[in-house]
Amino acid sequence: MKKEEILQLDEEEIVQLTDEIAELKGIMREISKKLTRIESKVKRRLISTSKISGLKTDPLAFSEEKTENLSPEQVLEVYEQLRLKAKEGNEEEVKEKLADLNLNDLTLLCSELGASVGGKSPSRKKMIDAIIGRIKQSLMLSRHIDRNVL
Q: Domain extents for the chain?
């Protein structure tokens, strides 16, 4: 559009165009969120598949850091193992195991447990403290309950 054409638009058209722009921005945000979600799922699947099949190459060329990432199911298994160790009184061993996990796994573990760590990039210490807090909370709540019966 030329400047003369823009000036000739009446207020109704301007409001209508503004609404269309806002609607398109909303649609683009939704598309971006969906693409991000799909991309993260594909990355997790490829990583877990490459672990199972023993592939050494990474088709999407992720970051150069070659640490293993856990799937959500594996993260919950790790949590259960940590909970059992803590129940036996091996809290130092639990802390060591958490310290050995990479940042992505700690983030996923916090997410799966619903542990609030605040901020976009919380420190390892905050995440480890939040996970240990969830483990202690679980132990206190299940002190008189046998989980195998459930």
A: 1-48, 72-147
